[in-house]
Request: fold
Amino acid sequence: MPDDLFSSSDEPAVTTSGPLAARLRPTKLEEVVGQGHVLEPGSVLRTSIEQGRPFSMLLHGPPGSGKTTIARLVAHYADAAFEELSAVQAGKAEVTKVIERARERQRMDRKTILFLDEIHRFNKAQQDALLPAVEDGTLTLIGATTENPYFEVNSALISRMRVIELNALTDDDVEALLKRAVEQGECPKVSDEVLAFIAGRSDGDARSALSVLEIACASGDEITMDVAEGALQQRAVHYDKGGDQHYDLISAWIKATRGSDPDASLYYLAVMLEGGEDARFIARRMVILASEDVGNADPQALLIATATADAVEHAGLPECTYALAQCAIYLSLAPKSNSAGTALAKARAHVQDHGAQAPPVILRPGKRGVGYEYPHNLPAKVSQQDLLPSGVEGHRFYEPDPKTEKDLAERLERIRKARGRE
Reply:
């Protein structure tokens, strides 16, 4: 955002340049399409907007449902400065600058609205930085998220805000917006059939539908069904975090990393980050892979993965991407072993098939443990006592990988000999 105290406040709700969706952004409540359940006359949100008395809120809804539009209208009706940040790109430093500008405006009796898009991508430290300014009224915070805010936003912050649920727009809502664009001369005449087709393929996302219409209108004077279909195919690839692509990409990353291909691992990591995937979700998968696929072939991998998860929480985006890249490369090049998971699966299968047997008396606490040999008191530090329950003696669940866990295999063989369990 610019350093000038008032330049951001004078941004109009609708512009004469930029994407079609920006040019058509409503400047009045009456122009908003959809969301009647929260904007109907007499509702808390509508009344506060009309009276210019903004309050901090979390707008929770799918893409293209009007979150940015509502935030801008709140600022417009309140004659407040409008600051906009994306949690994907901004960090604590950017938030601090916004708060400083808001304090300056407050001294001049001017309100500040901070619209924080994708607020769920801020880590705890970044969200905590907002608390004092929201608490003392330095600024009014409007957060936007496609995720459940009760899971993704700090309880301390969410308790100071009102959660407002927005719905995906209906096909009729989207079609009405497309017709408005045509009527305002933003596009050559388009048949109702084509507009209905674009609206039906938008999944309730007004921004997406208007983008398709804009591409179609740029291709010629006559917007046929074929032109509309082509415009749909030209849209930038949309990364659907809640759909199949979310799982396809993380699966591809796991398989590429497991397959020891650092270039493929970095590629799929880049696709997820560019698509706005939650860095914490990626870090969790890294921790899992470090144990499931690397395991004791390189125990350091788990330490690096958990350190990466900490870096995501403490540094946040975009800085934590360096840690994610470092971890992806390390995990790709690390030797692989799934023996730990395989061993546990064998042990669990045995318990499921035969039930849980009572531990030997010598292993139980209290007087019943009399007779237990304390390994540290033995010359070789190894006890020859049976430590598995009766009926389970002799079972072997863990078999180290002879190639990537050679040191562990040799150590285990020495221990088994010392225990008389060859």
Remarks:
- The chain has four domains: 8-165, 171-234, 244-333, 351-418.
- DSSP finds 20 helices and five strands in the chain.
